[in-house]
Design brief:
Elements lengths: L1 H16 L19 E3 L5 E4 L7 E7 L4 H17 L4 E7 L4 H10 L5 E4 L4 H6 L6 E5 L5 E6 L6 H13 L3
Parallel strand pairs: 3-4, 4-5
Antiparallel strand pairs: 1-2, 3-6, 6-7
Length: 171
């Protein structure tokens, strides 16, 4: 079972790497965020990133087979708890092939932030996601200010500081 999930992850990463869309990397910091329409796990419309202007948005692309994603979820939950009232919107965008995999993951690792689905993977393509997790910090004007790939707990302090800084910036 582990080997099958591992193969799926390699195939998915290979698919993402083969895309002809330019990845949103550090060189794209300062660009306007792609406009993405996301849905809830049940398929209902949920968020369009354009509608969130005025908030600092932390978009985190994740999948159930991603070990660093497990480590990032407590951090994201704490961020949402501590900074939501100051204008932070945390959105976890799931990229699993099967919604049931995401639901099982969330039963084991419950969260207090928004979970969205990118069913056709268009949002991931528009952002140029090439690693799991991939996070994009978007300021109140809709501009990408920070891109982060992967997650290690020792990076949490610097990520939080970047978010807190953006929360203090005026529109």
């Amino acid at each position: 079972m582990f080997m099958i999930k591992r193969i799926k992850s390699f195939v998915f990463v290979g698919l993402l790497l083969s895309l002809t869309i330019t990845p949103v990397t550090a060189e794209h910091v300062g660009d306007v965020s792609p406009s993405c329409a996301l849905s809830a796990l049940d398929g209902t419309a949920m968020h369009n990133l354009e509608e969130l202007q005025g908030k600092v948005v932390y978009v985190d692309f994740w999948a159930s087979w991603c070990p660093p994603c497990v480590k990032s979820f407590p951090f994201l939950t704490q961020l949402n708890h501590d900074l939501k009232d100051q204008g932070l919107q945390v959105i976890g965008v799931n990229l699993d092939e099967k919604i049931a995999d995401a639901e099982t993951f969330l039963e084991k690792f419950p969260v207090n932030f928004s979970i969205a689905v990118d069913a056709d993977k268009q949002c991931a393509k528009d952002f140029g996601v090439i690693a799991m997790p991939s996070s994009y910090l978007i300021d109140r004007k809709g501009v990408i200010r920070h891109v982060h790939q992967g997650f290690r707990p020792d990076e949490a302090k610097d990520l939080r500081a970047a978010i807190e800084y953006l929360l203090t910036e005026p529109l």
